[in-house]
Design brief:
mainly alpha; 4 helices; 241 residues
Amino acid sequence: MVTTTLKDQLRRLIELQHIDVDAYRFKNELRDKPIEIETLRLEFEAKKITLKSLEDKLKTIQVAQKDLDNDIKSKEEAIAKLDASLALLKTNKEYQTRLLEIENFKADKSLIEDKILAGFDEVEAARKAVETERTTVAQYEKDFLAKKKEVEDALAIIADQLKVKDSQRQQITPEVRPDILSKYDRILQNKDGLAIVAVNGHTCGGCFMHLTDHLLNQIKKYDELVSCDMCARILYIPDEL
């Protein structure tokens, strides 16, 4: 049953406000907590991308080393063939030319060997970087999954708590006049969950602005709902209720 006096209506609104403060907090948490998970997920994905980049770099270095090994084999085969051909040469000039060819191949082989030796250090450094990043990614994944479960469990609890608040609200709203409830709900939405506030001396409990004596007298008449001129929230005087 809808209560008749404005004081009774204000009391119902105050009850609603206590419920809605919690309800809005729960709604904000339901909105914000998934963002925490998404932030952690993006950090985890970034770490996986870093790991993939390091793994690709290691593979590239290893392929380059493999190519150098093949070059060494090619040079060695060429040197072996040239060595074998020395016995078939008939003139000293041909012999000296072939020896120069062999020396050139050996020089090329020596340069490749130097590159391979330098590559060993590069491969080792790249491998260590990959191993370190794999450890980091594994820890990130562990932390992410733990936090994700923690947040999901919290969201389930909050959702249940919000249902309780909705149920409590439905028990009170039938006792509020439709026009008053409509105004309250409109302010509640526009003021982020705070529609009715207490007067503290001459100060609005919502925006903390000074209230005139005229406005305070209007509240005490209880002819109509009185709102703050600054923040538009409904005002009440606790001692009066």
